[in-house]
Amino acid sequence: MIFCCPVCKGPLEKRERSLFCPNGHCYDISKYGYVNLLMSNQSSAKRHGDDRLMVEARRDFLDGGYYAPIRDGMLELALPMLKSGSRLVDAGCGEGWYTSALYEKAKEQGKDIQVACSDISKDALRYASKRLPNAECAVSSSARLPVADGGCDMLLNFFSPLEAAEFHRVLSEGGSLIRAVVLPKHLFGLKAAVYDEPYENGEPETELDGFALENRLDVRSVIKVEGADIKRLFSMTPYYYKTSAADHAKLDKLESIETELEVCLLAYKRI
Known about the structure:
Elements: E1 13-15, E2 18-20, E3 26-28, E4 35-36, H1 52-63, H2 68-78, E5 87-91, H3 97-108, E6 114-119, H4 122-131, E7 136-139, E8 152-158, H5 164-170, E9 171-182, H6 188-194, E10 211-226, H7 228-235, H8 245-252, E11 256-270
Parallel strand pairs: 4-7, 5-6, 5-8, 6-7, 8-9
Antiparallel strand pairs: 1-2, 2-3, 9-11, 10-11
């Protein structure tokens, strides 16, 4: 098992529907297949992470294939860095869309890998555990992953908070970090349809302490989004909850929209 006890860092063992560590700490596995390893003092919020609306919108939109260029770019970077027996952690896994693709492609290549999915959202993990039934799925914070020092060989960090020091801790020596971050024009067409004065994203910072950048792949494309998928795309972004009802209504009048995909994929080695 990749995950460890969040209290004492001891190894976890599955017995029926619970996980136990040698020091007697116990964590029940939910009926949805994930376990809650988030320490109660790590957040005072009543709700953690993305809510059900955002999670379901993202699940349905991604299943529509619009982000296939990003997924395929990830496979191009990550697959050569995996070998049979590798331990993979997805920090901020969402619904597990990217990780499930990587797991399936690795299996096709005869690479038997272990997978652990971490997200602070229970709603996201309900779907990740369905998509990846053989993976370990846990509610936890990327700032304090329930993984032992050097406990994984690859870590995915896609469109979620970067915790470079924590990722360095949990990766084995020479382990790989694969990141996805947005470039300035990402989804600019969507923003232009909603806002009177849309703004570009900033340029990503690519240098990380403790890591050497091995490869960079910029994914640039234009997608045509139609019907209900327009609102799904907007609902899965951080803009959704920061936008007025009047601006939301602009999307309801659109039958289709073209918008940019501009994402930077980065592959690092832990040093």
